[in-house]
Amino acid sequence: MTIRVATEADAQYADLLCQWYVESAKTRGTGIAKREPAYVAQKMASGDSIIAFVDGELAGFCYIETFDDKTFVVNSGLIVNAEIRKGGVGRAIKQAVFNLSRTKYPQAKIFGITTSLAVMKINTDLGYEPVTFSELTSSEDFWKGCKSCKNYGILMENERKMCLCTGMLFDAADKLVQVQVPDFAAVATPALPVAHDSATDPETDSAL
């Protein structure tokens, strides 16, 4: 397995990743914010995303967004190929994007909102804690990303104080908990199809 910072050349995968987001939303039946290929490609070009491959085939992706003058960082859009979930790929990507966040924005609070139990477990291993939405960024740019989620009405009815997602926050500059990443060389991974997917919400992390 190869996990690395995505580059401008990886824009060729943006359309497929966005298809995976759509398919994941249908499969999971929960809200997932919509992403556009141009936005995904921009995150690749800026060095603010992590991409993963297994046997040379696209396996997963996640990116970084910053808010409030870079005092808050969110690891967003975690997506893993549907055919290889539960094999540790999502966990490895989360570790990599977390480390990228800590490297690029060492003083920032790292947060996410998710409906995925698997993501909550990984976040907990990384040192995140569940918090109320009031502890997260108040940036309109972040919350408007929820507009494409089917649960947006619930969020607004509750004055952005709560929704179906759980807020999680890493807020300790001197604390870095490493997730155990499996030895992928020893794991037999099935061949990847050209379609189908997985992720959450505005972390919106995905299914793993």
Give an account of the 3D structure:
It is a single chain. Helix content is 29%, strand content 21%. By secondary structure, the protein is an alpha+beta fold. The protein has a seven-stranded mixed beta sheet, sandwiched between helices. Mean pLDDT is 80; it is low at 177-207.
Short description:
About 30% of the residues lie in helices and about 20% in strands.
List the helices and strands and how they pair.
Elements: E1 2-5, H1 14-28, H2 37-45, E2 49-54, E3 57-67, E4 72-80, H3 89-104, E5 109-114, H4 117-126, E6 129-131, H5 140-143, H6 152-157, E7 166-170
Parallel strand pairs: 4-5
Antiparallel strand pairs: 1-2, 2-3, 3-4, 5-7, 6-7
Helix pairs in contact: 1-2, 3-4
Q: Main traits of this protein?
A:
single chain; 208 residues; alpha+beta; seven-stranded mixed beta sheet; 6 helices; globular
From the helix content, strand content and strand pairing, which structural class follows? alpha+beta
Radius of gyration: 16 Å
Main sheet, how many strands, which sense, barrel?
7 strands, mixed
| Range of strand content | 15-25%
**Bulk shape:** globular
Strand elements, count: 7
N- to C-terminal separation? 16 Å
